[in-house]
From TrEMBL, chain B:
HAMAP family: GcvH
Cofactor descriptive note: Binds 1 lipoyl cofactor covalently.
Cofactor or coenzyme needed: (R)-lipoate
Encoding gene per record: gcvH
Protein name: Glycine cleavage system H protein
């Protein structure tokens, strides 16, 4: 039942203090006063609590169980960080307060920025972008501004591997670039020969993630960086997979010029059903002047301020300074983990992935023979041929066992793909259990395929009809 | 007699007009069609260029013009019944009719048998 | 002597488990996992990890270095507004089933998320008077930028006529997003009423004009006459940036034929948060839905005929369309949209209207009292809960003194644009009282002496 159907006219869910001034509205022109019905629900506080409690009970979440979504890094979201972000000194400050009165906030942002520079090997960072894709767009606009500043107007092409996350070409296109896809090797790595063929004076940037979306480290990265730079282009790092190398290797040391981070992945801030996240953008010094305004800086006397004096800045990517509450959580996480914890986290993430990969290789072909990093891809095409059961069905059947399915049908270069990222916060038992469940489902696919094809059976709703939903869309309650 | 492009469109010649659609093989791979982005009548298309798209829930397929010319008719039925493409991709599910400017381009296309072999090889 | 056991927060592995797992993989040590990586390990130059209690102390100290102004003494808005937020809002949106859930790609185990966002979309449609809304953007500024790009997709034209009275940060954001496209921006000044000068607007409309953008109420607090704006804007895409609380009192842009309505949902249950995260809402007409960015939730049935919800029209989005997507947006601000929905559910139409009326009443009382004290209002037009008044040259000094007395006083508009020197933007909501207004005026009088 929707919340609207629970509405009872006249119900109220709140009580305001006594008003001291009465409303007259004399100067409002008649035709501008609302007469159109505003059909919001009328409910008591308990009605609202019960409704959302019921909705909550229908949701899977990290707190509930394993979420092995590739490239999403569904690690545990520390409760401490939720508490710290909710401190009044952080939630009640207005962005237009004078900087002297928000020194704590600015100090936090500055120190976070410094830590992220150290972690990535970059020289300056903007905390403004609200999400990874937002950071990618920011980075792409910086690349564009850089080339234009050198009167190099021909560079309109962005090279993107065919294994890349969809936001990469989408962000490049939004920044005005023509996107050219590079075919990967059969191992799923960047094909250096392909790259050489495409590098010319029209290329502005190569977008990469390392490890790539198959969880494989681009072992030719130093050569790739050299080739790209020699051709006069820049190298962009999609930080979605930073959890594999954090504390051990740095994109800045591999030759990347622009980097974006996903605080809601690598740095444990919660996904919140799809957001808010935060996508800081880091650059090497020669690009710092293009960063969005304002930047958080520290003056000689030790106080912090907002620097708007960047005449070559690409401008603003949003209002105000960034997703501040999310920044607080990432800051607390970095303090908690420290240099040793961050390194341990990425090591355990890689250990977990390789261990699970070994366990699952009993049931599925793994897309690459190489040692993976924090995630790996399973190629389900043989399984599908043998059993007639699709990877989509396996994903749905996993839900019956109380586990969230991994990412399916991505990356696009692997057929019937399942991309699995356990993260370091999962224990060996969880991984053993998951492998066991997969074994059971493979058995079912062979002996009782209809059970898997018609899954899920034990979830709040059964398999949903998304064909009719898209063909005859219902966008709202009427 | 139908001819096929390697990008899975079919062409049936009707005088000066080329009736164009996507092959049965293509509709199978696409899944349930939910929306057809029909082009405007009068649009000029060039062989090999994308001129419209066909969407399922999980994919959007770009359609490449198998011949050059001007679009003189579109299959309006597809606005309300996109599923015609799944039901009868090579018949009732036709997409557009193009007035050809260069009928010689047809010789570059595959005949039915050659197309069938091509699909098998593609895997 | 007891051996110190190294504890790594949130990481469960014991040394023994690590060894067992390495054995299964066929490696001897953790270093073996990185055999394929041709780079040397570089230890981070950061302090070692800390315990929870130390982290709490450090972060709390930072929060205490910020000055929090008492709610009733806040008289500044300009895009972030202080309202009363019932505690139950925080309680509901803090539930881990919402906070730690992922994007609802596996719909069958995300019905909580999907239904909550479907309901949110419905509420936004009701507020704005539009036909379809998405399930959130980052903030009002980026939502407006995306609306401008969408308008360009709709008619292919390139000139955007932007009212001068759209929030300056929103305008800047639009211009940044437009860098990837060949768009031009023309600023349309306001008249002596403080609303967009429609004669000027009409003069600037030509064959290349793509869209008209106005804010309601506008940056100066003035209520725009949307009926007249729509007339003047003819067949251009009309984009309205709306403040959500005011929509309970004012006839919504949908009633006047707006094509796209965007805005920031911060006033609906979200505290100031130092400017973020807030949430952008985005609503349009059904005929444009395939050109709209962002995730859209639709209603459907499951295999047993039960009502359920799924993401629809995903072929607009980046994970399918990649370089041809309507936008690159992936992560949105779903949890903040949930906050809006919870707040609106508690308030209902009557509650929102009451808050709007009180905000209006307090602002008008403040304006009247300022005029009685000798300050002049800058504009003659009708306003909602913000207004501009004339201040002395050294108002910034007075403003800082007022802050030291605990007031977040009306903002010096010179901070936004030098052209506005000598003007201040005042704001009042239901949190202000007669008493706090009198005390502000009192402090202002003293400061000016």
């Amino acid at each position: 039942m929707t919340i609207f159907e629970k509405s009872v006219k006249g119900r109220k869910g709140f009580k305001l203090p006594e008003g001291s001034v009465s409303f007259e509205g004399k100067d409002l022109p008649d035709h501008l006063i609302r007469t159109r019905k505003l059909a919001l629900p009328e409910l008591s506080e308990l009605d609202v609590v019960r409704h959302y409690t019921e909705l909550a009970s229908k949701n899977y979440s990290v707190d509930k169980g394993f979420y092995p979504l590739g490239s999403c890094t569904m690690k545990y979201n520390p409760k401490l960080n939720e508490f710290l972000a909710s401190l009044e000194g952080f939630t009640e400050i207005h962005p237009y307060q004078p900087v002297e009165t928000v020194q704590g906030a600015l100090q936090l942002m500055y120190e976070l920025k410094e830590a992220l520079c150290e972690i990535t090997g970059m020289d300056e960072i903007s905390l403004q972008p609200a999400a990874g894709a937002h950071g990618e767009l920011t980075g792409m606009l910086i690349v564009r501004a850089y080339h234009l500043s050198r009167n190099d107007t021909k560079r309109n092409v962005a090279l993107v591997p065919d294994s890349a996350h969809g936001t990469n070409p989408a962000s490049a296109a939004m920044a005005g670039f023509e996107v050219v896809e590079l075919k990967s090797t059969k191992d799923g790595l960047l094909d250096v020969e392909e790259l050489k063929k495409h590098l010319n004076d029209r290329v502005a940037v190569l977008m990469l993630t390392n490890p790539n979306t198959l969880g494989l480290f681009e072992k030719d990265i130093l050569e790739i960086a050299k080739l790209v730079h020699e051709a006069g282009a820049l190298l962009y790092y999609d930080g979605a997979n930073l959890n594999a190398i954090m504390g051990r290797f740095r994109p800045g040391d591999m030759g990347f010029d622009v980097v974006h981070l996903n605080l809601h992945k690598t740095f444990s801030t919660p996904h919140g059903m799809g957001g808010p996240g935060s996508g800081p953008v880091g650059v090497k010094q020669f690009l710092a002047r293009f960063l969005p305004v304002p930047l958080v800086r520290k003056s000689k006397d030790g106080s912090y301020y907002l620097d708007y004096d960047l005449p070559e800045s690409i401008g603003r990517m949003r209002s105000f300074y960034g997703n501040f509450s999310v920044l607080v959580k990432a800051y607390a996480y970095i303090l908690t983990m420290g240099e040793d914890g961050l390194k341990r986290a990425s090591e355990m993430a890689v250990l977990n992935a390789n261990y699970l990969r070994k366990l699952l290789s009993k049931y599925f072909k793994v897309a690459s023979e190489r040692t993976c990093m924090h995630e790996f891809v399973v190629d389900g095409s043989e399984f599908v041929k043998k059993t007639g059961v699709r990877i989509l069905d396996v994903a749905k059947r996993l839900l019956d066992y109380g586990v969230h399915a991994p990412t399916v049908y991505f990356p696009l270069i692997v057929h019937e793909a399942m991309m699995i990222e356990p993260t370091e916060t999962e224990s060996k038992q969880t991984l053993d259990q998951f492998a066991e469940i997969m074994g059971k489902i493979v058995d079912e696919a062979i002996n009782n395929p209809d059970l898997v094809k018609s899954a899920p059976h034990n979830t709040p709703v059964k398999r949903l009809d998304d064909v009719t939903a898209t063909k005859n869309p219902i966008y709202r309650y009427q | 007699m139908k001819k096929f492009a390697k990008t899975h469109e079919w062409v049936k010649v009707d005088g000066k007009l080329a009736v164009v659609g996507i092959s049965n093989h293509a509709q199978e791979k696409l899944g349930d069609v939910v929306y057809v982005d029909l082009p405007q009548v009068g649009k000029v298309v060039k062989k090999g260029e994308v001129f419209m798209s066909v969407e399922s829930v999980k994919a959007a397929s770009d359609i490449y013009a198998p011949v050059s010319g001007k679009i003189v008719e579109v299959n309006e039925k597809l606005s309300n019944q996109p599923e015609l493409i799944n039901k009868d991709a090579e018949g009732e599910g036709w997409l557009v009719k193009i007035e050809m400017t260069n009928p010689d381009e047809l010789s570059d296309l595959l005949d039915e048998e050659a197309y069938r072999r091509f699909c098998e090889e593609e895997g | 002597m007891r051996r110190k056991v190294n504890v790594f927060p949130y990481i469960p592995h014991t040394e023994q488990e690590v060894q067992e797992m390495l054995k299964v993989i066929g490696f001897e040590s953790i270093e073996d996992l990185y055999r394929d990586v041709p780079m040397t390990v570089r230890r981070l130059n950061l302090p070692k990890g800390l315990d929870e209690f130390t982290v709490t102390r450090m972060v709390k100290q930072l929060s205490e270095k910020n000055v929090v102004v008492e709610k009733e003494k806040v008289f500044a808005g300009a895009g972030i507004y202080v309202h009363h937020i019932p505690y139950v809002v925080k309680s509901i949106v803090s539930r881990p089933e919402f906070v730690t859930a992922y994007t609802p790609y596996q719909a069958e185990v995300s019905q909580g998320t999907l239904q909550a966002l479907f309901e949110y979309q419905t509420m936004i449609c009701e507020l704005t008077g539009m036909e379809v809304a998405n399930s959130s953007m980052y903030d009002g500024a980026s939502a407006l930028a995306e609306a401008v790009l969408m308008a360009h997709r709709i008619n292919g034209r390139t000139k955007v006529l932007m009212s001068e009275a759209v929030h300056p940060e929103y305008v800047q954001t639009c211009k940044t997003y437009a860098r990837g496209f060949d768009l031009q921006f023309v600023s349309i000044a306001v008249d002596e009423n403080g609303s967009t000068d429609l004669k000027l607007l009409a003069n600037f409309i030509d064959a290349e004009s793509c869209a008209v953008v106005v804010q309601q109420p506008n940056f100066f607090g003035i209520i725009e006459d949307l009926r007249r704006v729509r007339e003047v804007a003819k067949d251009l895409v009309l984009i309205v940036v709306a403040e959500p609380i005011s929509l309970s009192l004012l006839e919504p842009p949908g009633s006047f034929g707006a094509d796209i309505v965007v805005g920031d949902g911060q006033p609906l249950g979200i505290p100031p948060n130092f400017g973020g995260p807030t949430v952008g809402f985005f609503a349009t007409l059904e005929k444009y839905v395939r050109k709209m960015p962002g995730r859209i939730i639709g209603q459907t049935k499951d295999a047993e005929g039960k009502t359920g919800y799924v993401m629809i029209l995903q072929t607009r989005e980046q994970h399918i369309r990649r370089g041809k997507a309507t936008s690159n947006i992936c992560t949105n601000h779903a949890l903040m949209a949930l906050t809006n929905a919870v707040y609106m559910s508690l308030m209902g139409p009557e509650g929102l209207r009451e808050i709007a009326e009180r905000s209006y009443a307090n602002a008008h009382y403040l304006a009247q009292r300022l005029e009685e004290k000798g300050f002049k209002l800058k504009f003659k037009g009708p306003f909602f809960n913000e207004f501009v008044f004339v201040v002395p040259e050294d108002y910034e000094r007075l403003w800082r003194e007022l802050f030291n007395e605990g007031f977040l006083a009306p903002l010096p508009l010179a901070w936004f644009d030098e052209r506005y020197r000598g003007l201040a933007l005042a704001c009042a909501t239901e949190v202000n009282t007669k008493e706090s207004i009198e005390r502000l005026l009192d402090a202002m009088e003293r400061g000016l002496k």
